[in-house]
Amino acid sequence: MPLRPDIVTFWHGPLDRLRRxxxxxxxxxxxxxxxxxxxxxxxxxxxxxxxxAEAILPHSFAERLRPARPDGVWIDRTMLQFSDFFRxxxxxxxxxxxxxADVLLLKPVEIDPAKPYFAWxxxxxxxxxxxxxxxxxxxxxAFEALMAQDELTPDWxxxxxxxxxxxxKLRGTTRISEVRLAIYGPAALTALAxxxxxLQYALPKKSFYAVHAEPKLFFDPxxxxxxxxxxxxxxFHISPKGRGNDQPVPGSLYAWAAEKFR
Length: 262
Prior knowledge:
Blueprint: E1 7-10, H1 17-28, E2 33-37, E3 48-52, H2 78-92, E4 97-99, E5 103-105, E6 117-122, E7 125-132, H3 138-147, H4 159-170, H5 186-195, H6 216-219, H7 225-228, E8 235-237, H8 253-260
Parallel strand pairs: 1-2, 1-4, 2-3
Antiparallel strand pairs: 4-7, 5-8, 6-7
Helix pairs in contact: 2-3
C-alpha cells in the first residue's frame, strides 16, 4: 500500500536561501523532514529536524574519497561523492525517501516501500536527487559491498571507465574517485538499476527534473504556468550552481515559490 515517507537528506556547511526554501516546501507537503549533518545547522526552517550524520556514515569516510586540506576542510566536490554513499547508507537503514536539499516539492510523495522510487534525469541516466530503495534492494547491497573495499572501485564500471582508470593508475593515481567526479552518482545508480532490472520503476524525467538542465526556467522571469499546472510534475530539482543566495527575481518561478512557501 502506498505511504507518505519521511524525507531525509545530508548537508555539510551553511544552508543558503534556496535550500531553506526547498526544505520548507518538503515540510509543507506533509512530510517529516530530517537533515543530517556533522555540525548543527543554523537557520533551519521550522519543523525541520537536524540529526547527527556520524551515526550514519563517519566523517572519516571522506578521506577514502578525496583527502581534506591540511586544515581538515573538505576540498571542492568532496560533499558530492560523500553524499552518494550517505544516501545509500540511509536506504540500508530504512530511514525514508532521500531528496536533495535543493528539491522543491509541489505535492506529497507516495511510495510503495517494497519498490524503488526514482526518475529519469536525462534520456539514458537516472537522477539520484530523488531516491528510495528498499533496504534489501540489490543496489543497496552493491554499495554495501563496495564500501567494504579499501579502494572503492565499483564492479559496475563500463569498459571505457575501466580503461581510463587503468591509464590514470599508470600515471600514479590510485583512487577512482580522483579520476571521475560523479562515478558513484547517477551513472552508478543507472548501471546498477539496469543490472537489477529496475529501470522499469523510473518515473518520467519531468516528474522532478523539468528545470534541472535549464535553471533559467526557475531563476529568470517568464511564463511558468505550464510547469506549475502540470499534474505530472511532483517537484523540481533545481541545482542552483552558485545562485542559492540570490534574491528571487520578480516574475520568476523562484519568486512564485518563495511566496508560496514563505
